[in-house]
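non-specific serine/threonine protein kinase, pasting as requested.
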Amino acid sequence: MKLRSVYLEQFKLERQGTTLVRELGYKNTCQFYLVPSNIFPISYSLRHALLWEDMAKSSFPFPSSPCSLHILYLILSIFICCLPFTDQLSFQISRFDPAATNILYQGDAGPSFGAIEMNNVNYLCRVGRVTFAERVRLWDSRTGKLSDFSTHFSFIIDTQGATTYGHGIAFFLAPVGTEIPPNSSGGFLGLFNTTTRDLANNQIVTVEFDSFPNPEWDPSFQHVGINNNSIASAVVTPWNASLHSGDTADAWIVYNSTTKNLTVFWAYLSEPGFKQNSSLSYAIDLMKVLPEWVTIGFSSATGQYGERHTLQTWEFRSSLDVKEIGGRTSRKIKIVAGVTVLVVVVITGMLVASLVVWRRKRRVKENPEAKNLTSINDDLERGAGPRRFSYKDLALATNNFSNERKLGEGGFGGVYRGYLNDLDMAIAVKKISRGSKQGKKQYITEVKVISRLRHRNLVQLIGWCHDQEEFMLVYEFMPNGSLDLHLFRNKPPLTWAVRYKIALGLASAVLYLHEEWEQCVLHRDIKSSNIMLDSSFNVKLGDFGLARLMDHELGPQTTGLAGTFGYLAPEYISTCKASKESDVYSFGVVALEIATGRKSVNPLGGDTQMGIVEWVWDLYGKGRLLDAVDERLQMDFEVRQVECLMIVGMWCAHPARNLRPLIRQAIQVLNFEGQMPDLPPKMPVAMYHVPTPSSSANDPLVTFSSIEMGR
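Structure tokens follow.
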């Protein structure tokens, strides 16, 4: 079923709450539709509308004459049209009059030639806000009744021909008296700032048309989103501002208090054949989120890039007003009828739910892994960000996983390049080999962890698929591949400036994982082949299949040994306890690889190998640290930065866990904001307890040295 755009002409009112409209067709043909007024509040003689095409077709025995009567329900109207609207609060503004008192302006917003210009396009980092002057009753604390409402508005986003622009416009419901927060320009859309963006006591619901994806909280594409008490959208769908720059958009937002469903759908007058997904729904009980009385309005903002936001028209209709009528016989009849319908729906729902639960339990009993997969489906499909793909979608995107699209082969499967037409973006698809139980476990771990992370230096998970016994992860495509290809393969050498930028970007990613997210994330497999590079050689740390979550205050955790030889901290190998310090050790090894162009472990001849940490430390002790620098740089580097990166690398890879820095301290030194560590000229040899089932303070100690290690 797809949306099609038509022009509708209001004909007459057929019954209360329903509007009879006429579709203007080809060669003066016409068709009529009964449309619930609360869904499609028509106020002009000619209105652009959206019709669900499959519903409009003859799936019912309608007459085939040119002017036959069709009953067409728009999205969710089956439920909403059954709800009588009494004492409606409504307004319709087709032209914004500067002298009118029913609209309040804040920030840059102001009336201009019958419309509202939301932002001053002559400046950057601007905020504008428009609100309806009267407060709106969302629910009745006396009766517990929740309001239905619908709003229709038209707006224009003009990117002014720029290739980079932002940030967008949003409709919002918030407590009465809400003001523009300070420092809320850019991606905050004038609604939040760094302090308030995720507060538990926020009371705000928004529908955003976001033209600039902020990597900290947005998906990687422009989108329409519904936000619940947060700057991060709860649900999103792709949308592109540049494709409709300067075009008038018509948007409808509808809330059904019975189903607790908030729906937004939109269309463009300039594009009757608009085929993209132009609707979005989200289940939310507004009584639990917002106060009884709210302010409604629009907010928009620009950041380092600009665009023009213009509000042209606005209509609003609500089923609750200050004068709520109660105690009438007709209302009691309606309540009884409503309760009866509700009981039938609940009983039917319980039967269906019981059947679903029974089938799930049976499937889990037959396949224990199904429990984890079902949980992932439930969690991710309720959340924002990554979406679920079908096997067919990904097969089409990768030319049926052809060898020509293969980017590489890992321990648990292949990686393929693909292209998603609906998102207009290149992707990388990680396909787990059939029968790889360990690969499936890592798949589950990676989906659970990375789907919740948002940082500019982490690979963005676009979606996932476990369909037809196939397990796949979909990432944004990295044109420059992984770091190891540039350090150890026959690719042109990276310049020193790019290398130092990569080291800082990787450190920033580790800082986010260790300290800045809500839980501490131990990556456990930081290595050059897991560090991806985008088109500008920005770092994107990936492969979270071995990652573990833990509370920030906890120390090393027994996780079992996992990772890659050469990047593993000595105490981790000895005790099997992963920690922030073991991740920092891996970062130190990568830092030395970046500076030297050598692998973490290098052959000395025969079966003997030397670790890069030992090799660099030996040169450091001899006063020949610069001899370790990658020869391919041909001495074209900043000596101060080279020495700093290698010393920080040795510091992070110190054999003694307690003598390694926090990643924050390493970043300070790399930015020349902290004191350079004073390392001994000879690499220390660390000592660790041998883990035994009955370990004690008297347990024997073993020494661990990375000087020589067998294959």
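Note for the archive: The mean pLDDT is 77.
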